[in-house]
């Protein structure tokens, strides 16, 4: 069905988000990053990232499937969520300049989770523009 994480991979996960990340991978939603959020963490909110490498239509299907999953999770656990759809491009260096490879988009999905809807609302108001920039540059890879 999905990917079973190794014990070493599980040990590296933040404790407050570990069970959710393991479950998502088992269900076939392979994660590329996760963070429980908070002070001294990469994200303010608990965050799980997915890199799809699919075409745009399949990417949108995956977003719909994740939305269904997190709606059930919200009802079950009481967590609110925000799904951010970001697209980035691999880069290459030509004539000593970094160039995006526009023919090969990398579709990414980040899900931000918190018990309090107000924290997600504050995040959208105060940090979303920065987050969008980070999402669009974090998956640049040298090819």
Arithmetic mean pLDDT: 77
Strand order, main sheet: write it out. Answer: 1-2-6-3
Q: Could you say how many structural domains there are in total?
A: 1
Biggest sheet statistics: 4 strands, antiparallel
| Radius of gyration over C-alpha positions, nearest whole angstrom | 16 Å
Number of helices: 4
> How much beta, percentage-wise?
15-25%
Count of DSSP E strands? 6
- How helix-rich are the residues, as a percent range? 40-55%
Computed structural class: alpha+beta
Shape field: globular
Distance between the termini: 30 Å
Which ranges are low-confidence, i.e. pLDDT below 50, for 5 or more consecutive residues?
130-143
Order of helices and strands: HHEEHEEEEH
Q: What features would you describe in this structure?
A:
This protein is α+β, with helices and mostly antiparallel strands and 143 residues long. It has one domain. Helix content is 41%, strand content 24%. It has helices at 7-11, 18-26, 56-77, 117-138, and strands at 33-35, 46-51, 80-88, 91-94, 97-100, 106-114. Strand 4 and strand 5 form a beta hairpin. The longest helix has 22 residues, at 56-77.
């Amino acid at each position: 069905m999905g990917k079973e994480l190794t014990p070493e991979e599980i040990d590296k996960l933040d404790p407050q988000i570990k069970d959710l990340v393991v479950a998502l991978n088992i269900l076939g939603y392979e994660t590329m990053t996760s963070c429980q959020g908070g002070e001294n963490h990469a994200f303010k909110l608990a965050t799980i990232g997915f890199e799809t490498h699919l075409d745009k239509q399949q990417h949108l299907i995956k977003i719909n499937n994740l939305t269904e999953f997190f709606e059930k999770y919200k009802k079950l656990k009481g967590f609110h969520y925000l799904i951010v759809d970001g697209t980035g491009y691999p880069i290459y260096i030509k004539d000593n300049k970094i160039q995006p490879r526009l023919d090969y988009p990398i579709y990414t999905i980040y899900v931000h989770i918190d018990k309090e809807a107000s924290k997600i609302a504050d995040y959208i108001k105060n940090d979303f523009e920065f987050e969008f920039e980070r999402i669009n540059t974090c998956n640049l890879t040298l090819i």
